[in-house]
Design brief:
This protein is of the alpha/beta class. It is built from 15 helices and ten strands. α4 runs parallel beside α5. It is globular. Belongs to the radical SAM superfamily. RSAD2 family.
Length: about 350
């Protein structure tokens, strides 16, 4: 009965088709509008005038064997790009004007016991012929055989050391069992001298070391640069509900930081970085090769340079090039130009 009424009523069938078509078109229209309002609009003028990524910090792993309480790039994932994909991204950066690459983590010597890192260092120096290739490490995983294999292609090795008092290092979390972080630092310093790699020290000044005087030890080690950072809070990394660290107890004031700097004013290689200088003056790539924007006190990722290219991704980096230059981000960073006495 119902079938026959539909067949004998073509107008009813036409109305049914029209209402169905209206429903489909309305669904498509609302979806398109949602995409347009939620996807970031890329200003093509900004893309054309994008910052040149002269110096890039690639944190290709978040995993680490230390538990520094103030760490601002924590082990939230265990992801590491396949080697060839990482190389593709590095090549894109070189083609966009990169002169210096710094590999960091996490602990960059962890993946494949330093072989992954070594192959990236070798690729950047031999294939891409970058003027400067550097590494920041806690030093605990470095072996002399690594220097023998890859040392020629490395310009600068920075080792993190916040104190020459082992008890302080234990309090901070810059330790692994009963191994001496300080003894290892001296051993690596000697290897850098032997294998002609410029040696650098990074220190984070916090509540546990702010009153120390490191002058004598720094002068003895004689690094090409001693980078001194004020402990920095980053929401989602070392502060806030989703953070893996609680760094509030490590934070010092601007005055305390300045007093530390004044105490070490005789150290000529000292390069100070307050929170203001540090926050937006680094081009940071995460493990997915996304630039991280820290302007809002957290790390907001761009799209990956592997997906959208360097120029588009860098527009969302929040990079402050003027502060980069003001803090001394551009310096003699190729060991061939340092005229060091090995």
């Amino acid at each position: 009965m119902q079938f026959s009424s539909v067949v004998t009523s073509p107008m009813l069938l036409l109305q049914l088709c029209i209402s169905t078509l209206h429903y489909i078109l309305a669904s498509v229209f609302s979806t398109v509008c949602y995409w347009r309002t939620t996807s970031p609009v890329v200003d093509q003028r900004k893309v054309r005038n994008a910052t040149t990524p002269t110096s890039v910090n690639y944190h290709f792993t978040r995993k680490c064997n230390y538990k520094c309480g103030f760490c601002f790039h924590t082990a939230k994932t265990s992801f590491v790009l396949p080697l060839e994909e990482a190389k593709r991204g590095l090549k894109l950066l070189k083609e966009s004007g990169m002169e210096k690459i710094n590999f960091s983590g996490g602990e960059p010597f962890l993946p494949d016991k330093g072989e992954f890192l070594g192959k990236l260092v070798q690729y950047c120096k031999q294939d891409l012929q970058l003027p400067s290739v550097s590494i920041v490490s806690n030093g605990s995983m470095i072996k002399e055989t690594w220097f023998q294999k890859y040392g020629d292609d490395l310009d600068i090795l920075a080792i993190s050391c916040d104190s020459f008092d082992e008890a302080t290092n234990q309090l901070i979390g810059r330790a692994q069992g009963k191994k001496s972080h300080v003894d290892n630092l001296h051993k690596i310093r000697n290897w850098c001298q032997q294998y002609k790699v410029a040696f650098k020290i990074n220190s984070v000044i916090n509540t546990f070391n702010v009153d120390e005087d490191l002058t004598e030890n720094i002068l003895q080690l004689n690094p090409v640069r001693w980078k001194v950072f004020q402990c920095l809070l980053i929401d989602g990394e070392n502060a806030g509900e989703s953070a893996l660290r609680e760094a509030e107890r490590f934070v010092i004031s601007e005055q305390q930081f300045q007093e530390f700097l004044d105490r070490h004013s005789s150290v000529s290689c000292l390069v100070p970085e307050s929170n203001e200088k540090m926050r937006n003056s680094y081009l940071i790539l995460d493990e997915y090769m996304r630039f991280l924007d820290c302007r809002e006190g957290r790390k907001d990722p761009s799209k990956s340079i592997l997906d959208v290219g360097v120029k588009e991704a860098i527009c969302f980096s929040g990079f402050d090039e003027k502060m980069f230059l003001k803090r001394g981000g551009k310096y003699v960073w190729s060991k061939a130009d340092m005229k060091l006495e090995w």
